[in-house]
Specification:
Layout lengths: L8 E8 L11 E9 L3 E5 L3 E3 L3 E9 L5 E6 L24 E2 L9 E7 L4 E10 L11 E2 L5 E11 L12 E5 L6 E2 L18 E2 L6
């Protein structure tokens, strides 16, 4: 069953008509309700990424489909207006907006892959729902949880050479590094494996900005 509700209603009754070859039944109240309202994003599952990394964001809410567009704006900006590229960080928007994809049949989750290329602390995630049939405001707004994403950048490490079997402290420089972050060394071209022995899941000892 995939209804497309054409009017906003709160707590509409779910009524069931059974198939019965012996009589002509009528719809009966199931005791359940459904509310039809303008699409809402209640939360986003990503809050920190590395600059330049392509990350899949999962959005939760209801009514989520490709009529919803998203942009990521600078922390100093607000989620407002109709401009799909206004105040965005690099990679955080495009003309026409980024549309949600890969929605579930219940339309309660959807995804979007973003490559954010500008370091910024607590960039705001904004969403846009068209007016008319979709009932939106035709302006960007905050998610219900006012979701943000921090784009961190690693700009250097020292020393650049270490000795085998010698305990060595690496000093990292960058933005928004915390002791909850971890380091690994890899011989692969994109950090997808081939980890160097004893150099994986190393917690940072101190934070820097």
């Amino acid at each position: 069953m995939v209804p497309s509700l054409l009017a906003a209603r709160a707590n509409a009754l779910v009524c069931l008509l059974v198939s019965d070859s012996e009589r002509t039944p009528t719809y009966q109240d199931s005791g359940l309700t459904v509310t039809a309202a303008t699409t809402e994003i209640s939360g986003v599952d990503v809050d920190k990424v590395v600059k330049g990394d392509t990350t899949t964001f999962t959005f939760s809410g209801f009514g989520l489909d490709n009529h919803v567009t998203v942009k990521v704006v600078q922390a100093s900006s607000t989620c407002t207006g109709t401009d799909h590229v206004g105040d965005i960080i690099t990679g955080g928007g495009q003309g026409g907006g980024y549309s949600l994809t890969s929605t579930t049949t219940a339309k309660t989750t959807a995804t979007l892959s973003l490559t954010l290329n500008q370091a910024d602390t607590s960039s705001k995630i904004c969403f846009f729902v068209a007016s008319g049939n979709y009932g939106g405001t035709a302006a960007y707004a905050d998610t219900r949880a006012s979701d943000v994403v921090t784009v961190m950048e690693l700009t250097g490490s020292s020393p650049s050479q270490v000795g085998l079997y010698v305990d060595t402290q690496l000093t990292l420089t960058g933005t928004d590094l915390t002791t909850s972050d971890s380091l690994a060394l890899s011989t692969s071209t994109n950090c997808n494996g081939n980890w160097i022995a004893n150099a994986q899941d190393i917690a940072l000892l101190s934070a820097t900005t």
